Amino acid sequence: MALDYYASGAWDEVTLRENRAGFEQIKLRPRMLVDVSQRDLSTQILDQSLPIPILVAPMAFQCLANPEGELATARAAAEVGAIMVLSTMSTKPLEAVALAGKQSQQKQEATSEIKNPSWFQLYVHRDRTLTRRLVERAEAAGFSALCLTVDAPVLGCRERDRRNQFTLPVGMELANLATMTGLEIPKTAGESGLLSYFAQQIDPALTWRDLEWLQSITTLPVLVKGILRGDDALKALDHGAKGIIVSNHGGRQLDSAIASIDALPEVVAAVGNHLPVLIDGGIRRGTDVLKALALGASAVLVGRPVLWGLAVAGVAGVRHVLQLLRDELDIAMALSGCTKVKDIDSSLVKIKD
Length: 353
Ligand code: HOC
Description:
Pfam families: FMN_dh
Protein name: Alpha-hydroxy acid dehydrogenase
Keywords: Flavoprotein, FMN, Oxidoreductase
Bound molecules: (2S)-2-hydroxyoctanoic acid
Cofactor: FMN
GO molecular function, one term: oxidoreductase activity, acting on CH-OH group of donors
Radius of gyration: 19 Å
Order of helices and strands: HHEEEEHEHEHEHHHHEHEHEHEHE
Largest sheet: 8 strands, parallel
CATH superfamily: Aldolase class I
């Protein structure tokens, strides 16, 4: 049940596969005879210095992979210098996750430039008081940005979850919400317990005005996650977004939605001069990170590989996955003639017709 929940996409999982296929169709055009003996993978986003242009994507219910759940991911991410985006639907409380990240970061001299190693992903509840309270808690706990998910007015239909009648095992809860609402994912769901919980709690009436509202109740920058079109990116900019995350929710929402990497150029063309544009969906290798940066992304978010690392070996597993990606990006940059992230430009890629 847990593996199916993490691995699955919506309906026929076309978008899930396309996210990978999109990257595979992009070929690299490396530059030769550049002195690449010194390389620097650091970058800047929203006035934050990042040692690597790789973040951990928000993923729900990480205790399904390891008893330490989000605490382990936060520790490993901070050790490697990757910002972790914590899901509203975490199985450890946001305050504890923020603390775990900070404590781990304080031990790491190399990554001490990150002001705060965690961002918070937000679903907006029908009850706005609840959302406001969550935002206040995230701010108080020291999260340094909010990512508003906009591609889930309703939950996508993941048939594997329905077949499994997905629910959280006894003893595991929505750690940020259960204490505030007393509500849990139904333990005896007819289909997927997620579907019923989501339909009951998350507001399908969200509009661009709510983005303005959200930005008005917080001092944190709000990034909009789930954008696949240039015109939507422009609307996000007009309504106060401080960044865009190009995403189709890992293929878990609208099946047949365009692959994230295929949507990236249009979004970058629309707002790339004004806002940082990040991307998730299908990033499995350092060369994928290079391709995304070449097409104008400021950074990438990695999801499922982190969960696989977490499931195999907890903190060590997540650290290993992030280090692999970092080292692969380093090698890919060297082999492409790039010494720093700013050297990675669109001339490095060729998209097959
Ligand atoms: C209880 C509601 O974004 C996913 C996540 C979390 C969904 C919310 C579940 O599974 O895609």
